[in-house]
Design goal:
The complex is a heterodimer of chains A (about 575) and B (about 675).
Chain A lengths: L1 H25 L7 H15 L9 H24 L16 H12 L9 H4 L2 H31 L9 H27 L9 E4 L5 E4 L4 H10 L20 H25 L11 H10 L1 H27 L2 H5 L17 H14 L14 H13 L8 H20 L5 E2 L2 E2 L2 H27 L1 H6 L4 H16 L14 H30 L16 H18 L1 H16 L1
Antiparallel strand pairs in A: 1-2, 3-4
Helix pairs in contact in A: 1-9, 2-7, 3-4, 3-6, 3-19, 4-19, 6-7, 6-8, 6-19, 7-8, 7-9, 8-9, 9-11, 9-13, 11-13, 11-14, 11-20, 13-14, 14-18, 14-21, 15-16, 15-20, 16-18, 16-19, 18-19, 18-21
Chain B lengths: L11 H13 L3 H4 L3 H18 L11 H39 L5 E5 L5 E5 L8 E5 L8 E5 L1 E5 L1 H4 L5 E4 L6 E2 L4 E2 L3 E6 L7 H10 L7 H30 L6 H11 L2 H20 L2 E3 L2 H7 L4 E5 L5 E12 L5 H12 L5 H12 L12 E3 L7 E5 L5 E5 L1 H10 L8 H10 L2 E8 L2 E12 L3 H10 L3 E5 L4 H11 L3 E3 L4 H13 L4 E5 L5 H6 L2 E5 L4 H6 L2 E3 L6 H39 L17 H25 L8 H37 L3
Parallel strand pairs in B: 11-18, 11-20, 18-19, 20-21, 21-22
Antiparallel strand pairs in B: 1-2, 1-3, 3-9, 4-7, 4-9, 5-6, 5-8, 10-22, 12-17, 13-14, 14-15, 15-16, 16-17
Classes of the chains: A mainly alpha (about 575), B alpha+beta (about 675).
């Protein structure tokens, strides 16, 4: 418990300055690193023929994003198919099969990092570096760029210009992702994570058997894996292996690196959007706080935190309660449910990691989610179904704003105003797009799950009978649609059916949402600011925050109530019944 | 059409027509306009099929026949209830339209041809531009403009106001409405609308709801409801195979029941009724809204532009004091003032005499040998010439000063001081002179209507800024403004100034409402987001506005704004209620659905409902009867009290959010207790 609180405390302390830094980058303000980085950026712009002054409307922005991503997918796919060539391939890995390559390349481009392969046996070092690690940067930068453009639209300071996608992509990479990754890589190396290009080492173990110890550029991948909320491990067992995550300290470093940027995005949002014009008689103390957080950002941050903490609490207590079946078998559960957990992390670090990795949609794991208690496993499932508890880089914020718009609409009516948010009217067009955006997520998860449990090829992948099998299926598609990428594991998922369906879920989950959300921002951007008065719905109050949390639970949560009750809830009741 | 018609929201007649309407609206072509209820109707058709052929979709578990029939019947009733709600709302409008239509009887019109001869034709043959004569006792055949004559007209058919009003050519009182009666004298009228297109026709169409268009906000809300419906349909459709996987074969009718319970039928069924009722409430205030959009915009009003005279003050300036100039004793000023006013029938004149009487002046008797000087806009004074040659005048101080100078008199030094003093106090100074001697000033006071300050406080509480427009000088305007408690004022305001103010406010993103009556108000009325024209006003003003106040009471804009807000609040509250209900329905139906296959799930049956059938049916029945239970609320609107937005949000969230979560738990349990024994009788 103490470790959990300490980690969250450190998070709060560092998220604010990073958020301010991101705000300065998003708004092209001066930062300390400009003298060096401006030259680097301008060099890149010159080489690529980008005119940084050239702003884009939302359509052009989206098109640039999609085309750039499509190009990377194309190149990446080819590399995966020809990785058998002896370039950075000391372990002699063969080329990847078609449907798996399709799944893998979509998975990494969409920032999902769902892995239907094991890294140590399925990828050459060339693929690890030029496809996996490369896409971990670019997919994160794409998501962040979309988020910045989205927030610029909401802020509506400019009626046409959402910024330049290429400029955002480059600046995010050079100013945020690269520097942070270098720092984190060094920290991880300090904790003992390998970073080399050597062949796997075969050692004789204490028991006298021979074992291959994986080598390679692990630390570099490990840092961006978390910073970019990617989650795809270098090795199959991901952050639960000592090679990726050796100590408690490395665990906390990894936790913080996946939390920091999604959290900072919210701070950036708060700083960028129009603040409610507070009257002049506000005491200075409040003003000072405002300048740290941004009042609108605070609402979103607090709402996300509430949902996060509720989830963490349930997960932690469910795990601490242990497994009654094991108690009956004579095993002590006084340390909680330790099945599938690393002894060096224990229940609290594991529960925290599980909740964080699904809330911040990273998808890295430091314990097996498949062996969580049913309710403990329901939390990561639920948070991916919500997909807005901080969420992946930028995207979680955008999803949360969809629910903010929904809440604004309903609450606005309840005080007798047609709805407005951030000084702009929310009208039919925005509602239509918001509604569409909200439908996509449950549609992808439920429809694909239904297909999986109703078809032979789907059923073939399910390794557990009954309720737990359903949880596996739901988890796989939630993880795909939310671009999370963590696996419940235990699903035999490297088949044509699973590769294609999850690939599609990841693709639509990512791009449809981004296109629609940028369209909403584009529409809001063009609107005239409306007057704010005492009669305007205030979105920076506790009441609104609570309403927002309830709307999220009722709209997003209740949609999944029937399947959750057939999956984890039924399993829990059976276990404890 | 009088205000006393509030109160009972339903009468026997409306009830019968509403029941009939509920069935007529079952037509799927009509239902599809309301997607939420259309889904329910679709569910009804499917369960109807299942009632007749229980195993058509492969279900053949036990006693499904009776169960299917009950689900089918409840769904049918749900649709009927929703249609009924809409019909009731329309019925109330229709009842009003009926009374309007009575005045629209086909009348005879005296068409005046160019050579001056009259031909009698039917009023329905009158075209725009025709000129007709109307004599005392006759109905005015269609809307028009008086081009000659002056007459009193009984407009009670339209306004419900029994006192006749004067209509004359020129100025702001030249417009007449078809269906009203000339009581005295005659009018020559140029018809301004084609048959079927008159003001009355529009009104009838509006209150009947025939020309009702969905408002922007209604469309947006509808989008939300449809998307919720789609989400729940996804949930239901995918639940079937997932259920099969989990070892539970779900009967189709149960899935339909769950779907209908989850989709927002409560608000879906009442949405159009709320809109119609909102318009209706405005109509009951004797305000005709040209569109629902206008009523909705009312809820968003940020700034209200109000004329001082008539709206904020009575407009009748009444004598409050006499202020003699130096060297004149008060007594002689009062005597002269009273003498000048004895024959003056204006409120100013009457009140001067009245005040004089109070101060102990003997009122001179009326005599025939005096010459009365009427007030004209040119001279800006009135008065009396006595038989002894004394000429007494009262009027605007500059006019009197000029008059006295012409007579060779001098202007006392302290006159300006007196005049300014009165102006500062918000009064109008009326200078009195006798021949070439200025005696002093009558202090006419413009009285602020009682309760205005409280009203403006209420408006301020809900964030509406009030701007007073007046032709008065800045000093007077400031005084009245502070007395009435308006936020801002524009003194020496010309009609063009109004439109500038509106544009300026709109430029700041504000929604502006204003009232007006004169033709020169028309551009401003058109520019304002909410323009309310007085029925007494000109046709131009009425056409430019998006609402017309039949009582010509400018203060009603305040109520209309509140009605607009109330309509939005009602929509929002019922939406919240409807969505919050889903929690309880889930807890009723989910355990019931799966209890047989997965007995462990009975823990979720927190309401402890008796059997799976009674649980599902209780939820479904609750879902149906909540609609008629909420009809009165939808018709009357959620109670509205002005308060800050945060307070109001908390209040409504507690009542409709929390209430919406708790109510169905109680309701479903009660229904379960009632129907469980009945169901066991038929073997369910």
């Amino acid at each position: 418990m103490f470790q959990i609180l300490m980690t969250l405390l450190i998070f709060i302390i560092i998220v604010i300055p990073i958020g301010m830094y991101m705000y300065r980058i998003a708004t092209y303000q001066k930062t300390f690193a400009d003298p060096v980085l401006n030259r680097l950026d301008n060099g890149i712009f010159k080489v690529c023929g980008i005119d940084p002054q050239n702003g884009m409307g939302w359509k052009k922005y989206v098109l640039s994003l999609v085309l750039t991503n499509a190009f990377m997918v194309f190149v990446g796919y080819i590399i995966l198919r020809i990785q058998f060539l002896p370039i950075f391939n000391p372990n002699g890995i063969s080329g990847m099969e078609e449907s798996l390559s399709f799944n893998t390349i979509i998975s990494f481009m969409t920032n999902t990092n769902l892995q239907h392969y094991a890294g140590e046996s399925g990828l050459s070092y060339l693929s690890q570096m030029s496809v996996i690690t490369f896409m971990m940067f670019t997919s994160a930068a794409s998501g962040y760029a979309a988020c910045v453009a989205f927030v610029r639209g909401l802020a509506g300071k400019d009626k046409k210009n959402m910024g330049n996608f290429y400029v955002d992509l480059v600046r995010v990479t050079t100013r945020i992702l690269l520097p942070l990754s270098i720092i984190v890589t060094l920290l991880l190396v300090w904790q003992g994570v390998p970073q080399n290009l050597s062949q796997n080492v075969t050692v004789k173990t204490l028991e006298g058997t021979m074992q291959d110890i994986a080598m390679g550029p692990i630390a570099a991948l490990e840092s961006i894996k978390h910073i970019g909320t990617n989650g795809g491990g270098f090795l199959g067992a991901n952050s639960s292996t000592p090679l990726e995550n050796p100590t408690i300290i490395s665990n906390i470093i990894e936790l913080l690196s996946m939390m920091i940027l999604p959290g900072a995005c919210v701070i950036m949002f708060g700083k960028m959007v129009r603040d409610r014009k507070s009257s002049n008689n506000v005491p200075n103390a409040i003003k000072a706080r405002k300048s740290l957080f941004g009042r609108e950002g605070r609402t979103v941050f607090v709402a996300m935190s509430i949902i996060f903490l509720i989830g963490l609490f349930v997960c932690y207590y469910a795990e601490m309660a242990g497994n009654p079946a094991l108690v009956n078998a004579g095993l002590s559960q006084s340390m909680g449910n330790m099945e599938g957990k690393e002894v060096r992390f224990g229940v609290s670090q594991s529960a925290l990691f599980t909740t964080v990795t699904t809330s911040f949609t990273t998808g890295t794991v430091n314990n097996m989610h498949d062996t969580l208690t049913p309710l403990g496993g329901m939390i990561p499932l639920l948070h991916m179904m919500l997909n807005l508890v901080f969420g992946g880089k930028g995207v979680g914020l955008m999803n949360m704003i969809m629910y903010v718009i929904l809440t604004v609409f309903i609450c606005g009516l309840m005080i007798g105003r047609t709805p407005e948010y951030l000084g702009k009217k929310i009208e039919g067009k925005e509602m239509k797009l918001t509604a569409l955006c909200i439908i996509i997520h449950p549609l992808l998860i439920l429809a694909f799950s239904a297909i999986a449990v109703a078809t032979k090829s789907g059923l073939a992948g399910i390794t557990n009978e009954g309720f737990h099998g359903l949880s596996q299926v739901l988890y796989e598609y939630s993880s795909s649609a939310a671009n999370n990428g963590s696996g419940f594991e235990g699903l035999a998922d490297n088949t044509l059916f699973w590769n294609i369906t999850t690939g599609l879920a990841m693709f639509f989950g990512r791009y449809l949402s981004i296109v629609i959300q940028l369209a909403i921002a584009g529409s809001i951007m063009r609107k005239q600011f409306v007057n704010e008065s005492a009669g305007t719905l205030r979105t920076d109050t506790t009441t609104f925050t609570i309403a927002l949390v309830l709307i999220v639970y009722i709209f997003a949560g209740l949609t999944f109530f029937p399947v959750l009750s057939l999956g984890p809830v039924a399993e829990h009741l059976t276990l404890w019944g | 059409m009088s205000k006393s018609k509030k109160g009972n929201f339903i009468t026997g007649k409306i009830l019968t027509s509403a029941i009939k309407g509920a069935f007529v609206k079952l037509n799927p072509l009509y239902m599809i306009k309301n997607p939420v209820m259309f889904v329910v109707e679709l569910g009804f058709f499917i369960t109807l099929l299942l009632s007749i052929f229980p195993s058509i979709f492969g279900d053949n578990s036990g006693n499904l026949g009776a169960y299917n029939i009950i689900v089918c019947v409840v769904l049918f009733i749900t649709v009927l209830f929703a249609n009924f709600a809409e019909s009731v709302a329309e019925g109330r409008g229709k009842a009003q339209a009926e009374s309007l239509k009575k005045t629209q009887k086909d009348t005879k019109a005296r068409l005046l041809s160019e050579d001056g001869s009259e031909t009698i034709i039917s009023s329905s043959e009158l075209k725009k531009g025709d000129i007709v004569m109307v004599y005392a006792g006759e109905l005015i055949p269609n809307d028009g403009e008086v081009i000659e004559g002056i007459a009193s007209v009984d407009e009670s058919a339209i306004t419900g106001e029994s006192a006749p009003v004067v209509r004359e050519s020129g100025g702001d009182f030249c417009s007449v409405t078809g269906g009203t009666t000339v009581v005295s004298d005659w009018l020559k009228i140029r018809i301004t609308s084609n048959p079927g297109d008159s003001f009355l026709d529009h009104m009838i169409a509006l209150v009947e709801g025939a020309s009702r268009k969905k408002t922007p906000n209604e469309i947006a809300l509808n989008t939300l409801l449809v998307s919720l419906t789609i989400i729940f349909m996804i949930v239901i459709v995918t639940l079937y195979p997932i259920g099969v996987y989990s070892g539970v074969q779900l009967p189709i009718s149960t899935l339909i029941a769950l779907a209908v319970c989850l989709i927002p039928t409560t608000i879906g069924g009442l949405l159009s009724a709320i809109g119609i009722a909102g318009m209706d409430r405005v109509t009951r205030f004797n305000v005709i809204a040209m569109s629902g959009k206008a009523v909705e915009a009312c809820g968003d009003v940020d700034t209200m532009i109000l004329d001082k005279t008539g709206t904020i003050t009575f407009g009748n300036r009444l004598a409050a004091d006499f202020l003699p100039v130096k060297g004149i004793d008060k007594q002689s000023l009062i005597e002269a003032a009273v003498m000048a006013s004895v024959y003056d029938e204006t409120p100013e004149g009457k009140s001067t005499v009245e005040l004089g009487r109070k101060l102990g002046i003997k009122i001179p008797e009326l005599r025939k040998d005096v010459v009365i000087i009427e007030f004209t806009a040119q001279t800006r004074m009135s008065g009396i010439n006595l038989p002894n040659g004394t000429k007494i005048r009262k009027g605007a101080s500059e006019a009197i000063a000029e008059y006295v100078k012409q007579q060779g008199g001098i202007i006392p030094d302290d006159l300006k001081k007196q005049v300014d003093e009165v102006s500062t106090l918000g009064g109008t100074p009326l200078t009195v002179c006798s021949d070439n001697r200025i005696l002093g000033v009558i202090y006419l006071k413009d009285t602020v209507k009682p309760g205005m300050r409280e009203r403006f406080d209420r408006l301020r509480a809900i964030g509406i800024k009030t701007i007073m427009c007046t032709g008065d000088n800045p000093l007077t305007a400031a005084t009245i403004a502070s007395e009435a408690g308006v936020d801002d004022f524009i003194a020496e305001c010309k009609p063009e100034d109004k439109i500038d103010v509106i544009k300026r406010e709109q430029g700041k993103g504000k929604i502006v409402a204003m009232t007006g009556d004169g033709t020169n108000d028309a551009p401003a009325l058109a520019q304002a987001n909410v323009g309310i024209a007085m029925n007494s006003g000109t046709t131009a003003a009425k056409e430019a506005a998006n609402m017309v106040d039949l009582d010509s009471d400018p203060t009603k804009i305040l109520e209309v704004v509140e009605i607009g807000k109330q309509m939005l609040i009602t929509r929002g509250s019922l939406t919240t209620f409807s969505i919050a209900n889903d929690i309880a329905k889930y807890f009723a139906i989910i355990p019931a659905m799966f209890m047989l296959g997965i007995p462990q799930l009975k823990v979720l049956n927190i309401m402890n409902l008796s059997t799976q059938y009674s649980a599902i049916l209780s939820a479904l029945i609750f879902n149906a009867i909540i609609i008629p239970c909420l009809i009165p609320l939808a018709m009357k609107g959620v109670k509205y009290r002005p308060m800050s937005s945060s307070k109001m949000l908390i209040r409504n969230l507690l009542i409709y959010g929390l209430g919406g979560i708790i109510t169905p738990f109680v309701g479903i349990k009660i229904i379960d207790l009632i129907i469980a024994p009945l169901l066991s009788l038929i073997g369910l």
